[in-house]
Amino acid sequence: MNFEIDKTSTSISNLQKNKNTDPPSTSEHSSNNSELKSAVAETSKAFPSSKWVKLNVGGKIFLTTIWTLVSKEPESMLARMFSQDGAMLPSNQDEQGAYLIDRSPHYFEPIINYLRHGQLIVDPNVSLEGVLEEAKFFGLECLVSQLESQIMQANQPLDNVPLTRRDVIKALIQTSHLTELRFQGVNLAGADLRKLDFRNINFKYACMQRCNLSHANLTYCCLERTDLAFANLECSQLVSVKGLCANMEGANLRGCNFEDPSGLRTNLEGVNLKGACLESSNMAGVNLRVANLKDANMKNCNLRAAVLAGADLERCNLSGSDLQEANLRGANLKDAELTLMVTPLHMSQAIR
């Protein structure tokens, strides 16, 4: 194999020397073209896909097959160097017959492994930026996009990275039940926190958008100004929570329990529950003063003795709910659904 490649390289080298001299005649030019085509053809025949090949990358030898180099990313430089169509001539060889590539072996190793099995695996001591530059040099477009995505995630400020379920469970396990646990101002967006026990925990100012808190116990929690937009709190225990001015727009609170048997009221004053689902929830005695309940679904809710003074209930569905002794003074009931009420709604409840 080495003899054939050396012979081909010599032929190509001679043609390149002739190219640098005076312009050849028409007959000479035709002869040179035919020789070049012949040389490329000989080179192509020397690289069957099953053949093993040595690469000398920055002084380190890598042994691989032609198939590895050409199959994963056929438009890359390595694939074109060793493809059977002769799209690009290979580099020179060292004394052992390995093809010389003047690049960093430190960053080339993850690349050759990627071409072997299709997985990008980079050791912690290897710079992703270095591997990215090599991937760009060799024209490995799919690998470039993967590396750019990983680098973007790695460079994301830690303050903006949401905590995961594992992080939260670890904090819960390591904290004594006698110690106050605070997640104040923490980013928990999108976290799966279902069925966990969060009693007495402080979530003030926390970002909990689109969290899954279904069947969780949030009794006595502080949710003041917490962002729970579009979160799932179905069947959660929200007994005596402090949710002053919390954002629960579009949240799912179906079947939740807010009532404290001891008589301590849940405080949701000024909360944003626009478009939220509270169907079949037990909200007896809850404080919803000046809350935004526009377009909310509150069908079949227990709202006995609830405070809804000044609340915006426009287009709110309250059908089948129990509003006995509820305070609706100054509430906006425009287009609200008040059919099938458990107890009659008296005007005195809305004007006192």
Strand pairing plus helix content: what structural class? mainly alpha
| β-strand number | 3
Shape: elongated
The CATH architecture of the largest domain is 3 Solenoid
Main sheet specs = 3 strands, mixed
Poorly predicted tracts of residues: 1-27, 29-33, 35-45
Q: Which series of helices and strands comes N to C?
A: HHEEHHEHHHHH
Instruction: Note the gap between the termini.
Output: 100 Å
Helix content: 25-40%
Task: Tell me the strand order in the biggest sheet.
Answer: 2-1-3
List the total number of helices: 9
Strand content: under 5%
Rg calc: 35 Å
CATH topology group of the largest domain: Pectate Lyase C-like
Please identify the top-level CATH class of the largest domain. Answer: Mainly Beta
The average pLDDT score comes to 84
Biased composition (Polar residues): 8-36
InterPro entries: 5peptide_repeat, BTB/POZ_dom, Pentapeptide-BTB/POZ_domain, SKP1/BTB/POZ_sf, T1-type_BTB
Region (Disordered): 1-37
Protein name: BTB domain-containing protein
Topology:
Layout: H1 2-20, H2 26-45, E1 52-57, E2 60-65, H3 66-71, H4 77-82, E3 99-101, H5 105-117, H6 128-137, H7 141-154, H8 165-174, H9 348-351
Parallel strand pairs: 1-3
Antiparallel strand pairs: 1-2
